[in-house]
Amino acid sequence: MWTLADQTFKSRLLLGTARYPSPQVLQEAIQASGTEIVTVSLRRESAQENSGNRFWDYLRQTNVRILPNTAGCSSVKEAIVTAHMARDLFQTHWIKLEVIGNDDTLQPDPFQTVEAARILCDEGFEVFPYTTDDLVVAERLVNVGCRIVMPWGSPIGSGQGLRNIDALRKMRERLPHIALIVDAGIGRPSHATQALELGFDGVLLNTAVAVARHPGPMAAAFRLAIEAGRGAYEAGMMQASSRAHASSPTVGIPFWHQESLL
Length: 262
Fold this sequence. Notes:
Elements: E1 2-4, E2 7-9, E3 13-16, H1 23-33, E4 37-41, H2 42-47, H3 53-61, E5 65-69, H4 76-90, E6 94-97, H5 110-122, E7 126-131, H6 135-143, E8 148-151, H7 165-174, E9 179-183, H8 189-197, E10 202-205, H9 207-210, H10 215-235, H11 255-260
Helix pairs in contact: 1-10, 4-5, 8-10
């Protein structure tokens, strides 16, 4: 169990809802993943394959919490307007904030993201800001009221995994009381395990499951990977060493065996 924005959840996997071949496949993936939170873009979903009120109605029927996001926004104004629409549509003050600054890398604009986060926090939103692994930006987001920060592992949809381990580790160390969720770049279950082993609270992913040959089984694999990573972190993992260390003790070796080794 873990607490996120004053709510308690069992699963540490957040799942995106885009690019699935059908609503039925999406439903199978949600069930197999064990997720309790799904994120959806108002701007992109409305303009693409899941358009219309039927998609929103379908999401409402699932037994998961909906986290609307502002994907596709490139300015503070667009993000604020989209957040207000999401609050009215889904009756939630949760919003995943995305303000993209580069169309090629889909890297978030740090200045506009912080400003939009400040405004939304002041208006009573629980803001889940998407950012890079830059510690200074993460600290600025916390300073304006964010209790959750969502750094990327690598660019959206790239599947590169955690590209800057040192930066992510430092962020975890410097923000011990902030919920940190790796968002973007996760391509394999092993990437998710690595994030949880670093002490991150959760992982949000979409493409790695949606485009898999079998999305349901892939979602199940990610569920197990995240459970394994968190379990290892809580159990306390051994530290790497530059030297070899015998796993069998030398104390108590029979004297005749010691002589044979001479």
